[in-house]
TrEMBL record:
Pfam families: ADH_N, ADH_zinc_N
Keywords: Metal-binding, Oxidoreductase, Zinc
Domain of life: Bacteria
Domain (Alcohol dehydrogenase-like C-terminal): residue spans on this chain: 189-254
Name of this chain's protein: Threonine dehydrogenase-like Zn-dependent dehydrogenase
Cofactor: Zn(2+)
Residue ranges occupied by any Alcohol dehydrogenase-like N-terminal domain in the UniProt entry: 25-142
PANTHER family: DEHYDROGENASE, ZINC-CONTAINING, PUTATIVE (AFU_ORTHOLOGUE AFUA_2G02810)-RELATED (PTHR42813:SF2), ZINC-TYPE ALCOHOL DEHYDROGENASE-LIKE (PTHR42813)
The family this protein is said to belong to: Belongs to the zinc-containing alcohol dehydrogenase family.
Lineage of origin: Bacteria, Bacillati, Actinomycetota, Actinomycetes, Micrococcales
Amino acid sequence: MRAVTWQGPEHVSVEDAPDPIIQQPTDAVIRVTSTAICGSDLHLYEVLGPFMTPGDVIGHEPMGIVEEIGAGVTHVRPGDRVVVPFTISCGRCTMCEQALPSQCETTQVTEYGTGAALLGYSKLYGQVPGGQAEYLRVPHADYGLMKVGTELPDENYLFLSDILPTAWQAVQYAGVPEHRTLVVLGLGPVGQFSARIGRHLGARVFGVDPVPERRALAERYGIEVFDLSEGTVGEIREETQGRGPDAVLDAVGMEAEDSPVGGLAQTLVGKLPDVVARPLMEHAGVDRLAALHTALDLVRRGGTVSLAGVYGGAASPMPLLTMFDKQLQLRMGQCNVRSWTDELLPLVEDPADPLGVGDLVTHRLPLEEAAVGYDLFQKKHDGCIKVVLDPTIVPAPTIAPTPTIAPTQTH
């Protein structure tokens, strides 16, 4: 099969990879029909190289058609259309029973002290082949696979794999609807959904992003938008009686652009040999913290900060005096996908499309053009907000130009 593989920092390529097979009774194999590029994939692309191996198949937002199932998978059968959550969870352990499948005790990667294994996401999370491929083996499919309908486009369902439940959990952690004002920092895919969900649940939502196209898209859903300038915090405080919003949701994470020290540290570590870089990231890693510090500064006293953006630093400095003095709540964590999908399924099937799942994708490309998609998404070129790779699209053949033949000369 063809699959997107990590080859080095800022270098992915589509290569031949082994076809997946059933390895355990709870496995399934699906034929992928859509697979998205996630902001978290950029962490592999830019930062987490020390935990990657050239040739790793990446990607963790897939859906498709069931091709084969193990004997222990009974709720789906070949031919069913399914969405695959990015977390690999058993559904039976103590953590799963407490609605925390992202902490699944069956698949925890104990070697690195991390939670449940993830599809296509480095040694830190199990080095399981991912879903940016023509076919995918789904471990623990008996719990994870979500059967969906056949009438609606893939985009109605695809984001149940990750970014939609991630946004839903982050808004729930922010205390909406109890909290009535919510700021969303970062209007990428997760931030767009977070802002829309906040509005859907009745909050007044402010969105902050430096990219005009992202602000314009959020405005269509009733979000009050701001660019990222020195006066933004003051402007939002003025709109919230001088106190600040009830909750701030950080949908940026360690990719914050206004963090020169953290950015330099990430770049330098990414260029070191793996044997040196891994211990540094595990014990002394520092994130780009501009978005988090903005959230802590902006939120009102007694308010809540919810982290949807991914952080990976082991030694990131935190303003604990301010956090304690302001009596803040801080909530975060890898998304517990299957704990939220039953609530979300009716919303993505609603003809009114209240969360706008039908308009988030700006670029749909053949799988073979994955490198183009990663470059577009990283650099935010061409109005890029969300890229979906489609293994079913056959790229147009490249036609070589016809050589020019000089006319025959007569003498």
